[in-house]
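User: Here's a chain of 206 residues. Predict its fold as tokens.
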Amino acid sequence: MSDKPFIIGVAGGTSSGKTTIAERLVEAMGADDLALVKLDSYYISRTQQPMDERAAANYDHPSAFDWNLMNEHLGELVQWKSAPVPTYDYTIHDRTDIVDMVQPARIIVVEGILVLWNSELRDRFDLKIFVDTPADLRFIRRLERDVVERGRTQESIIAQYLATVRPSHEDFIEPSRAHADVVIPEGGLNRPALDMLLARVREIVG
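Assistant: Prediction complete.
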């Protein structure tokens, strides 16, 4: 195939609804037409660090991600090659030994808090989306998610949010909004915006 895939970047703060948007696009289009790449898969390996150091790390800072590997894999997908994307286990704060072979597709969605921050990655996008959700809603969603899905205590979640999540949002994530072509309030709960996005993606696929 000679045509370049259409690449969509979906950024936004923690628990803003960006993952919901990306996954609904996948559900609507199907795996044959759309490939999803998540920034969370590219957290750097911390195998050599003790657990207390891993738990205390800032996972919302740009230095927490392996940008070179992510750009390398996206380059492979653009050339219609499969990419061996790592998987991440939030309970141990590290990558696993499992590799997810992501197949190329006509539409590639790249989702994550800082995907509009990295200039090399950002320049690959044909459509840049920022999901804008109020901080109090994002915090409540994160609190509920981390307790249920990641087995963390409320105290640890609040401490992490105040120490690293909120400052990194203000320093890196929110400023990246300026690079967006489209800002979607409320994320996956914004049905009209999601319908418009789906219509645009279907138009691209034909």
